[in-house]
């Protein structure tokens, strides 16, 4: 009876109404806050995961690059003018190995920026080139073998022209030829003057 | 005694108890207020129950995702620190790798070029003697000019047919031919030009 009397008061009803609104507001606010925070955290996690994957892949690439750079698979190309001396040495050695003779070798010490003839556009690089010409004389198959081995050498070069002329015939059909090479010795910048 | 009025109707004995009516109305009004209050109390109860059921779950979700976010951020920072550690070594390796790539490219194109030259020389039959072969590279294409003597017209045709094959041929032309008895009577002297792509 007392409860009914208390409940029937307008002030109490208003209080109950305000309490209801407060409870509803608190509920909604808690839901919105927690939901928003959860979404924010998920978004942040996704960004972090993507960033971690990217960084991981860059680390792998960098490690591979370092590994490859440290590998002693091939000697470094001689730098600057050192390339001329190195090329001449390699040419003489290879020619001798194949029983051929280098009858002529000339190179210009004038250093120019590398421009390829093997494409219409030169890749962007700071490498330099030196004009050179050489003649190798010997049996035709040996001269060609020497040229192929020269291509594999540690001194990069690029051909302008190769002219192979028969200079003497042999009974077996294997004549002596002279291969006149006009080429450019290509080298990374730097190095010391010879 | 009959009580009546001038219309002959019996006068009603009903009376209105004003005090009792006011009390009933008041009681009904109070009941309405109590019902409304009870409904609101019930709603408060439902809302509290709903909040008790949903808010802890959402709070757990929030704290769980926050923990994951912190863990992922820590992992990113750890990886960034690793990246910083190897950055100097990586930067030092980049020019070296570029240098090797360049050297490899030059080697590959020199081999491709010599391969084209060798292809032509390998197609020379015994009845043909090549006096000179000149090959010039320009703009990614190599022009091979061949001067040769053949024992017969057929031998020349055979050489030209074989030499004109091979990979990446742009054109192959027998530029000139004239009678020459240098190798055999009825022989031919000829110039042959082949253009091939040597672009890597």
Fold topology:
The complex is a heterodimer of chains A (194) and B (200).
Chain A: H1 2-7, H2 10-70, H3 82-97, E1 101-107, E2 112-113, E3 128-139, H4 140-151, E4 157-168, E5 176-187
Antiparallel strand pairs in A: 1-3, 2-3, 3-5, 4-5
Helix pairs in contact in A: 3-4
Chain B: H1 18-122, E1 128-138, E2 141-150, H2 153-163, E3 169-179, E4 188-197
Antiparallel strand pairs in B: 1-2, 2-4, 3-4
CATH architecture label name of the largest domain in chain A: 2-Layer Sandwich
Order of helices and strands of chain B: HEEHEE
Q: What spatial form of chain A do the alpha-carbon principal axes imply?
A: rod-shaped
The helix/strand class of chain A is alpha+beta
The number of helical segments of chain B is: 2
Strand order of the largest sheet of chain B: 1-2-4-3
Task: Indicate the proportion of strand residues of chain B.
Answer: 15-25%
Please give the radius of gyration of chain B in angstroms.
55 Å
Enumerate the spans of chain A where pLDDT stays under 50 for 5 or more consecutive residues.
none
Cα end-to-end separation of chain B: 139 Å
> What is the CATH superfamily of the largest domain in chain A?
Ribosomal protein S6/Translation elongation factor EF1B
Task: List unreliable stretches of 5+ residues of chain B.
Answer: none
Q: What is the CATH class designation of the largest domain in chain A?
A: Alpha Beta
Largest sheet of chain B: 4 strands, antiparallel
Alpha-carbon Rg of chain A, integer:
40 Å
């Amino acid at each position: 009876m007392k409860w009914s009397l208390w409940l029937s008061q307008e002030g109490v009803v208003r209080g109950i109404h305000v309490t209801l609104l407060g409870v509803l507001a608190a509920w909604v606010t808690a839901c919105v806050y927690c939901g928003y925070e959860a979404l924010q955290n998920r978004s942040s996690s996704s960004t972090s995961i993507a960033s971690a994957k990217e960084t991981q892949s860059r680390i792998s690439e960098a490690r591979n690059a370092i590994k490859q750079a440290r590998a002693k698979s091939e000697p470094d190309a001689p730098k600057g003018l050192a390339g001329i001396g190195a090329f001449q040495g390699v040419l003489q050695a290879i020619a001798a190995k194949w029983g051929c003779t280098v009858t002529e070798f000339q190179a210009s010490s004038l250093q120019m920026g590398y421009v390829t003839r093997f494409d219409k556009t030169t890749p962007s690089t700071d490498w330099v080139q030196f004009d050179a010409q050489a003649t190798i004389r010997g049996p035709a198959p040996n001269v060609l073998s020497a040229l192929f081995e020269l291509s594999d050498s540690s001194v990069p070069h690029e051909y302008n022209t190769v002219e192979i002329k028969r200079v003497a015939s042999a009974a077996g059909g294997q004549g002596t030829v002279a291969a006149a090479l006009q080429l450019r010795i290509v080298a990374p910048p730097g190095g010391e003057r010879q | 005694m009959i009580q009546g009025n001038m219309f002959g109707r019996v006068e009603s004995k009903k009376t209105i108890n004003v005090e009792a009516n006011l009390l009933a109305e008041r009681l009904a009004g109070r009941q309405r207020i109590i019902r409304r209050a009870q409904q609101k109390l019930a709603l408060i109860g439902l809302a509290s129950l709903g909040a008790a059921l949903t808010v802890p779950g959402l709070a757990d979700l929030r704290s769980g995702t926050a923990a994951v976010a912190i863990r992922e951020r820590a992992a990113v920072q750890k990886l960034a620190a690793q990246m910083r550690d190897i950055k100097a070594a990586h930067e030092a390796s980049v020019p070296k790798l570029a240098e090797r790539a360049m050297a490899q490219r030059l080697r590959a194109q020199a081999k491709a070029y010599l391969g084209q030259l060798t292809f032509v020389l390998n197609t020379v039959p015994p009845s043909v003697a090549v006096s000179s072969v000149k090959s010039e590279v320009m703009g990614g294409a190599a022009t091979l000019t061949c001067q040769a003597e053949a024992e017969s017209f057929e031998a020349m045709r055979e050489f030209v047919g074989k030499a004109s094959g091979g990979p990446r041929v742009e054109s192959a032309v027998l530029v000139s031919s004239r009678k020459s008895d240098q190798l055999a009577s009825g022989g031919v002297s000829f110039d042959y030009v082949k253009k091939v792509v040597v672009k890597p």
